[in-house]
Write the structure tokens for this entry.
Amino acid sequence: MPLAYCLLRKMTYQFDWSVLWSGQTGTWLLQGVLITLELSGLGWLVAIALGVVSGALRTVPVAPLRCLAAAYVEFFRNVPLLVWMFFWYFGMPPLLPTGLREWLLDHGAEFWAGVCALGVYHGARFSEVIRAGIRSIPKTQLEAALSTGLTVTQAYRLILIPIALRLIVPPATNETLNLLKNSSVALTIGVAELTFQTRQIEAYTAKAFEALAAGTVIYLALCLAIAAVMARVERRVAIPGMIAQGQSGEV
Amino acid sequence: MDFRVIADNFSFLMLQGFFGFGDFAGGTLRLALPAIVLGFLLGLLIGLARLSNSTWLRLPAKIYVEFFRGVPLVMVIFWFWFIVPALLGRSLPEYSVALTAFVVFEAAYLAEIVRAGIQSVPHGQVEAATATGLSRTPMMRYVILPQALRNMIPALVTQFIVLLKDTSLASIIGYVDLTKAAQIVNNREIRPFELYLFIAVIYWLCSYAMSRYARRWERSPGHGAV
């Protein structure tokens, strides 16, 4: 980008970095960051919940449940997130009862559609991560759990899923970063997150370079911060002797 | 629900939106296919640079990869959409902007695939090639890369699936791909559920078929036997 910077200067583009913190536009940027974090945070919770349940179901010894989970994963993973955003925001409401629809439209329907789209799409991707985690646990763990008198449900809830969650921190970090970056797609349905606000600042001040640079740097900083936190988490929860070394989540 | 809207607009959605024949310069495939080919060539160079002995090649390549992997694709598309016209003094067609953004962005991911592919070639091959008297460049070209490429194919197919899904984001700047075509039809017909479900199924068919292919390739005998 320095090359672009020099070229812009030569073309008498007036740089004005103060648009990023002065008054209205500074507030927009801050609001954008907060909405991005809320959207990603809620979407992440939905994704983890769906991912743990469907990822575990894909390994159980009951064929119909396995098929159901596989159908969910294969369908939602293989369609673009943008299409899911449109589907949840434009496609679903007309099918809802009128009262509920009106209520939703008054209470930030685009935000909740964004949470649904992110959660369901990334839930399918988390599911694969968690399935791989459960698969990597030696089968003897399940057998040992069953022989101590636990039911299959208890064995999953108390033994397999907790171990799997500790094993999958590195790939889960990668997925979390993908989710954060993908939350930018929500601007297409009008959620006022970071990318949306970046564009708004560009539209109001005509300072495209500054606005986009700010948005880019904030995304990079968020990604680095999450990666750093997760690296600590990874060290804390690592099971000695069970984790593959040197696969920590890169940005 | 009324799925006649799909039948009525089928040729517009598929020919214009998916393949790119028609009045608009559009098409999901017309963007995805050149983007993966050009992105792979750029990714190959960056991936080789990351494995180079020279810090002056290795470090910029590393920064490139880490930068683009930490930024959302939407942001990259906007960069090219707003900055390139400011630099050139004239606006570019959506197709050029979208293609450039995708090549630059995907190259970062493809470079990692290339690097992993090259590193997956057993070190004995390097030693054997050195023993026969090959220098670095011919060794890379005739010994390492042909084997590495074979190992990369499943990951490349997976990346192409990601790219195909990501091309839907080109609709944000007005490029008429399958998603935008559905939006255009929807503006006229107001049938969001049917239309978005239909394009979801089309994307799904392409992605699922390719992911099956990638999985079969991974399992096929002979793979990895280098």
The domain at 4-219 of chain B is CATH 1.10.3720.10 (MetI-like fold). The mean pLDDT of chain B is 89.
